[in-house]
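Dear Dr. L.,

I hope this message finds you well. Following up on our conversation about the binding site, I have prepared a predicted three-dimensional model of the protein together with alpha-D-galactopyranose. For your records, I am including the exact sequence and ligand specification that went into the calculation, followed by the structure tokens. Please feel free to forward this to your student if that is useful.
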Amino acid sequence: MPITIHSEKKLFHLFGKTFSYVLYVDEKGNLLNLYWGRKLPDGDVTYILKEFRGGASFDSEYSRLPFELPTVGTGYFGMPAVRARNEQGNDVTVLTYDSCAQVSGKPALSGLPAVYAEADGEASSLVIVLRDALTGLIARLKYTVMENLDVLTRSVELENGGSENLNLTNMLSASVPLPGNEYDILHLKGGWARERRIVRRPIGEATTRVESRRGASGHEENPFMAVLTPDTTESQGEVFAMLLIYSGSFLAATEVSNFENSRLSIGLNPDVCSWLLAPGETFQTPEALLVHSAEGLTGMSRRFHETIRTRVCRGYWRDRERPVLANNWEATYFDFTEEKLMAIVDEARKIGVELFVLDDGWFGKRNRDNCSLGDWVCNMEKLPCGIGGLAKRVNDAGLRFGLWFEPEMISPDSDLYRAHPDWCLHVDGRARTEARQQLILDLSRKDVQDYLIGALSDVLSNASIDYVKWDMNRNMTEYFSGAQLPERQNETQHRYMLGLYRVMEEITSRFPKVLFEGCSGGGGRFDAGMLYYMPQFWTSDDTDPVERLCIQYGTSLVYPPCTMGAHVSASPNHQTGRATAFKTRCDVALGGNFGFELDLSKQTPEDLATAKEAVELVKEVRKTLQQGQYTRLENPFTGNFAAWQFVSSDEREVVLCAYQRLTMPNAIAHRVRMTGLDENARYVDQETGETYSGAALMYVGLPVGYLRGDFTSRIIRLKKA
Ligand code: GLA
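The resulting structure of the complex is given below.
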């Protein structure tokens, strides 16, 4: 069991293949975090406690302690992980050790996405119970070590075991002290059409908050933050990373105390979420996934990728090869007829596409983005044979059929809104702020959830639909509910997420074979919470291949390529106006779930031939691309080149993808050094027949040729001899 409890010493040692996490209960019953880092033989590091005692008399004894779940009012001045205000109006909370229990396997979190175990042997769990004698607040700290995946999960369940109401105003999922302050921090900052840019800088002397208050994880930041030793590169250095498995507003933060120690925390954003806990009630926080790597960022990403791909993503499509698709959005926008769509389908079939996706504009009277969200009934003027008829025509042409929805939204100009004007998030007496001319359904309400489950089920059961693109195109403004008591209004954002997860759980289990792809104005809600319900996500509305190099590279810090939608679109690109070769666009899209997003019926024969070749290649190597091990090789944020590699799970096939931004005349061919290969094995280039030793590919590097022209690329397939 990767959890050892030394009960006489009140010491808990949790360990994976390469890390240890050590907790200790001191003589006053405080639960302290003594260590998170490289694996220790037995975890007994209680000797470090001396450091935290004594010192200047100015501070209380609590100021220095490395609390595992810091609270308020005793002299700990950092950010509280739990803050509970009682009916006397104060939030002093003293949580001391009560008991612990070990469980094999991993209990599910009710109503929330989380890492799961398929067999008890995969996971070992520990629950530590803390209690505040005065208010009766009980905190159950839940830990699971996924031993083979080499990761730790944490969450907290709070129960009101007293007789008065408690108002929870901080409910973080994890907060871990780290020694010293010689660190860098790393997070993924972005915006619409430029998601997940890698930001790295020194931790500094002040608190850094990486957060969302939007009611969605959002484009601006991802619910992820890492603390790194300054020497960290892809292949070396120590990384402490946290990812919140949640899709709503969040807070990740680093703090540096005046004792020059640091702390990394993650959880619900206290600015937009509090919770009234009546006697006997419980509140479960979202789960945090904690990754430690002593092998730099590659080691961190590997642990995130394996965990997300195999134990966050679920269902029929988790381990299946994902279909090559063609989506009509950038091909036609709202301006389509059945014949126009079928012309695209016909060309798609000829080049080997397997799935056709009809995007926005098929329902109500939606010919622009100003109406009809909520009216999920086919526009028969546009599509005279209905969704069922169109799906049949697409199926008859040999392709599967997929459909776009934006289920969480309601247009003021819709029959649904006219019938239920109180069904959106709003505040009575105030204007309802529109974005993209739409409002958000109040999914904190069960009647609205039930309506949505019914409306989606109707469409999905009345046509042959194999794929759903689940979009969400605005964030929350008046995030309050007409159906909630005043004292519970600040719960609305989280109640919305719980409602949304209920709807998604219900729909994905009613239609288990449908492939769901999440979307939010591109990659605005690309998070592990969504991936629990939908194994892939549209990475960005920016389909420019040069931009995509950075977007996909940044996304890959946390999320595996099989979760990223990546499509070939028109040139010049609709978002940037940049012109690129068809092949480059294909080679970049090959770094994710491959598809097309342009009018295939209007391409030149040469481009269609390139498209056909790309589809053939994708089909041949997609098992490796989607289920193999992905490693970043060259960073497009810092250089003119980008490169990454995929190695199949049996290690026999390697796909190297190399890209160049601007060409340089009179240059020596660029060489890419690969990684993680078998030094002594021989690898054969499938195109040229040339063979190389693994050692040469890694240490000397593979010349990817002189790439003539801007925005060029090469895909090299190697097989172990
Ligand atoms: C969002 C999505 C796009 C497309 C449009 C349709 O912007 O990200 O891919 O589906 O909505 O309105």
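In brief: The pocket of alpha-D-galactopyranose is lined by residues 329, 359-360, 369, 404, 471, 473, 519, 521-522, 538, 541 (CB under 6 Å).

With kind regards,
A. P.
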